[in-house]
Amino acid sequence: MTRRADRRPRPENESHFDTRSKGVIFSAGGALPLLLIAVLEPTFLRPGTLPILVGIVVFTLVTVAFTVRVGTLTDRQFTVLGSGGMFGVAVCAFLIADPSGARAVTAMLAVVPALAASGSPRRVTLSLTGTAVVFAAALSIIGAEGVVRYVAAGAAVTTVIVPALLIAAMRTSLESVTDRLEMLANTDPLTGLLNRRGMLPRVEALLAEACAARTAIAVSLVDVDHFKSVNDTRGHAAGDGVLTAVAEAIANEVPSDAVVARLGGEEFLVLGLARSVTGLEERILDAVRTSCNVTVSIGVAQADVRPGTFDVDVETTLDRLTYAADRALYTAKTAGRDRVAFALEDPVDWTGGAAARRDRVEPLRRHAS
After folding, report:
1. Rounded to whole angstroms, how far apart are CA atoms 268 and 257?
2. pTM higher than the cut 0.70
3. Residue 152 banded pLDDT, cuts 50, 70, 90
4. Active-site annotation, residues
5. Over 90: is that where the pLDDT of 128 sits?
6. Contact 142/153 with Cβ under 8 angstroms?
7. DSSP single-letter state for residue 359
8. What is the mean pLDDT of the chain?
9. What is the Cα–Cα distance from 336 to 338, expressed in whole angstroms?
10. What is the C-alpha to C-alpha distance for residues 5 and 123, in angstroms, rounded to an integer?
């Protein structure tokens, strides 16, 4: 399912900063106390290095101001600011005369990789983590002697890598759960077809494509004949098996650019560009007869698109199309079932706008099986 990239209105209580931006703002404040300490305690820094620390603080302030201004950083912006911030941390650690203070500041190198792991592409996370590892290892080796330098380097590298790995693992797990929940919310659990909620984005895309191509839209309602008797005589498990088989037969015939969904009960919907689904109804009838031991009735409605008129609410348009197909389906049922019937009139006023949204479509009829 294709996700739209349009901008949605932001709720009033929603922050315009993402996790990375907030992390950059709060973590950048770590350089400010260093300047205060260096002013109050001159021996805190190596001799003559105060101007360098002042330059780092200025860069930090610019980083914070820029992040506050743009809100959500792009991947490139985050990479540039994050790399600059880590370089500033490394320089600060080198400037501190006390080795214990230098090690404490070196630990701050873990912040940027952890932030990257929370919301950046893998290449960005790996790049920033690698940079932080190099800085941390180099700072740990400087000033240490013998085996101690290797122990210090290993500890510093671990301090950088472990938080990033943990956050990356948590993010992957969360994305997996989110994708699973989205799939469950958008699909019918019995047949695996889209449900109404799941098909709306696809329907919107098809309507836009129809308007751009100035072609017609066709919708078919497929209803299993005498389905109630299947449940009554063979049981609900057998009825579920029939629905699954019918759904598979329909899906096998529907072209890839069309939408197929289960509306509920024994009713299915197929919607696509008219040029792509011409003759599809008869193929569905034959496929169901051949493989499912039941028959279906199909109602079809079609709407011609007028140029430049895609200004209707998607759900309203879908309801109008479906209602027209529903009336055609009623005709097929009353004519003896196991057949296709077509709506006689154009069911949708594509002039759209407020007038189209004000109209109310009466609820769809549910046919006795």
Report:
1. 17
2. no
3. confident
4. 266
5. yes
6. no
7. -
8. 84
9. 7
10. 22
